[in-house]
Design brief:
This protein is α+β, with helices and mostly antiparallel strands and 192 residues long. The protein is built from one helix and nine strands, in the order βββββββββα. The longest helix has 38 residues. It is elongated, with a radius of gyration of 22 Å. Belongs to the VAMP-associated protein (VAP) (TC 9.B.17) family.
Length: 192
């Protein structure tokens, strides 16, 4: 999390759960720490690989804007699962009452009499499927399909796995819906 400048930015790294041939979404929060309107602009070292929404905007005093970053589907994994992509968030004080349509590229040009805050975020790939909480190898003398009396438990075990799978999917859907709602809220605030 960034604690200096006009904006508080979190997270400090963009973490993508990398999966081949799937677009992956990550969200960051930009919070205006000032009593002034702040214009922001998001840049990346690899613009063809990422879709950023919104990629610029105005944040009202002490308000927060959610920015969604979507990495396009990748056909091959990077070497050592490392990524060299970076993002730069520039921010400047804007005129009171400014709107996104008032943002110009010149606003972010550095000049001796103007402060342009910059914050760099790196892209980090994390495992897409965390290790299963179910042990891969059962303890000696125990099988998940039998109890000590030899009663079959495959049905309850399969039901548990089905429930875990269903809950994981529901969680993923809820996270995605949350990100979409945050994006809509941010867009509504910008256009308001």
């Amino acid at each position: 999390m960034s604690g200096i400048g006009l904006l508080k930015i979190k997270p400090s790294d963009l973490k993508f759960p990398f999966e081949l041939k799937k677009p992956i979404t990550c969200c960051m929060q930009l919070t205006n720490k000032t009593d002034r309107y702040v214009a922001f602009k998001v840049k990346t070292t690899n613009p063809k690989k990422y879709c950023v929404r919104p990629n610029m905007g105005i944040i009202l005093p002490h308000m927060t804007c959610s920015v969604t970053v979507q990495m396009q589907a990748q056909n091959e994994a990077p070497p050592d699962n490392q990524c060299r992509d970076k993002f730069l968030i520039q921010s400047v004080v804007a005129a009171d009452g400014a709107a996104t349509k008032d943002i110009t590229p010149e606003m972010f040009n550095k000049a001796p009499d103007k402060v342009v805050d910059e914050f760099k975020l790196r892209v980090v790939y994390i495992p897409a499927n965390p290790p299963s909480p179910v042990p891969e190898e059962p303890e000696e003398g125990w099988s998940p399909r039998t109890l000590d009396k030899g009663t079959q438990t495959s049905s309850s075990f399969d039901n548990a796995l089905t429930m875990i799978s269903k809950l994981t999917k529901e969680k993923s859907d809820a996270i995605q819906q949350n990100q979409e709602l945050r994006q809509e809220l941010c867009t509504a605030r910008i256009h308001w």
